[in-house]
Amino acid sequence: MSGSAHAPLQQALDISVQMLEAANHGHWSRVAELDTERQTWIRQQHPADQPNIEALTTLREHNRQLLERAEVARAGVERQLGQHKYNHRALSTYIASSG
After folding, report:
1. Which of 59, 58, 56, 73 is nearest to 22 (CA)?
2. Model pLDDT for residues 32-78, shown as the tens digit of each residue
3. Taking the alpha carbons of 8, 10, 12, 15 in that order, is the dihedral positive or negative?
4. CA-to-CA distance for 30 and 97, rounded, in angstroms?
């Protein structure tokens, strides 16, 4: 993809790659920051030509991957929270029974 007509979506693609890297490292606040920046580029008008269609298809795939990573992270947090609640109940029971 080249040329000024394709520059906005190229910027969006570059930012999407950064978002995937941030997600891979668990930097979700950075993902959100980058998404705000990426939206600026996506919301611009783009010619409906083959390079832009391909760029939009790639952006959709990046979004799918980001959603998958977010779901994995959410499930991990949910497991940790469940374990924390279990540990808290166990400790509360121990304290109650030893007092």
Report:
1. 73
2. 999 999 999 999 998 999 999 999 999 999 999 999 999 999 998 88
3. negative
4. 46
